[in-house]
Amino acid sequence: MKDDLEQAILAVHVRGYDGMCTGCRAWWSRLSPYPCWQVEWATSRQARTITARFLEGVR
Ligand SMILES: [Zn+2]
To answer: How much distance in Å is there from the Cα of 58 to the middle of ligand 1?
Structure first.
């Protein structure tokens, strides 16, 4: 359940046809090259969650 925010961010912040983030443009009227900082944030959090789950499974 705590991955929901990350999933939502990744669903909204997708790469546009011009290489810019569509989520940032649609939601914040901001032109950010993809991946924007929110995608970076979400993916880094997700990577940590996946790693934690993997380690838990090993133990
Ligand atoms: Zn974005």
So the answer is: 34
Q: Can you list the pairs that 11-17 forms with residues at least 24 positions away whose Cβ atoms lie under 8 Å?
A: 13/38, 13/39, 13/42
pLDDT digits (tens, 9 = 90+) for 25-39: 999 999 999 999 999
Q: How far apart are CA 20 and CA 40, in angstroms?
A: 14
Residue spans per domain, the chain: 4-58
What are the tens digits of pLDDT across the range 41-53? 999 987 888 888 8
CA of 20 to the centre of ligand 1 (A): 8
